[in-house]
Design a protein that fits this description.
alpha/beta, Rossmann fold, 2 domains, four-stranded antiparallel sheet, 8 helices, 43% helix
């Protein structure tokens, strides 16, 4: 079993390695969520483990990827010392499959991983968004407006899913770059504006359809219902 891990705390990483060796798990460690997501796009893993240390914004890349990913049902487990209900709810609502507070008991962590792997082999329900006449189905990558299909490229669909799944929330260029291109905003940023322009045009966004994408150069982009 091969698990992709992003754990920045060396003490926690060493503990995870000891637990995984005892359980017979292989662990591939990445220094950042960007590096992890690049590798996930190239090869398959049985599970993804992400350690969220002290700040929800630390997980922007992985949470945005979870929100807009399509066709990838690799289970994701969040590990964190933050155990308040809001943090747990945010992680699970963003698409994480389980949340384990640390410090943890090794036997519980291994049992939760086995449970996630069992569930990942079962049928995964289709996921769709319905908003202001627009519909998005991320299993088929089909977008439509009032049942009329709209032809989008895979990246345009991923961008649409990211915006429509978080109406009213500004999404930074860095987050868009890491989520859709699995790259830093400096690498993908020059094409983000062009993709947003094409998305607006193809979806015919505007007051007539009641949906617009606002731009704030210090904050990024926001889908707004008007």
């Amino acid at each position: 079993m091969n698990i992709a891990c992003c754990i920045r705390n060396n003490a926690v990483l060493e503990q995870i390695r000891v637990v995984f060796r005892s359980a017979g798990f292989a662990c591939e460690v990445f220094a950042s969520d960007t590096a992890l997501l690049r590798s996930v796009n190239r090869q398959s893993y049985d599970l993804i483990l992400f350690d969220l240390a002290v700040d929800l914004h630390e997980g922007d890349g992985i949470f945005s990827w979870l929100t807009c990913r399509s066709g990838d049902h690799t289970p994701v487990l969040i590990l964190s010392p933050m155990r308040d209900a809001d943090t747990v709810a945010f992680a699970l609502n963003s698409g994480a499959d389980d949340f384990v507070a640390r410090p943890f008991e090794p036997v519980e962590l291994v049992a939760r991983i086995h449970a996630l792997l069992r569930r990942s082999h079962r049928h995964t329900a289709r996921r769709a968004i319905e908003l202001s006449g627009f519909s998005l189905n991320r299993e088929s990558n089909i977008a439509a407006y009032r049942d009329t299909p709209i032809l989008l490229t895979p990246r345009e669909f991923s961008m649409a899913w990211l915006f429509f799944s978080s109406p009213g929330v500004y999404i930074s260029r860095e987050t868009i770059g890491r989520s859709i291109w699995s790259a830093d905003s400096e690498i993908a940023g020059r094409t983000i504006e062009q993709h947003v322009y094409k998305l607006r045009k193809k979806l015919e966004l505007g007051p007539e359809r009641g949906v617009v994408i606002r731009t704030a150069y210090t904050q990024g982009y926001r889908l707004q219902i008007v």
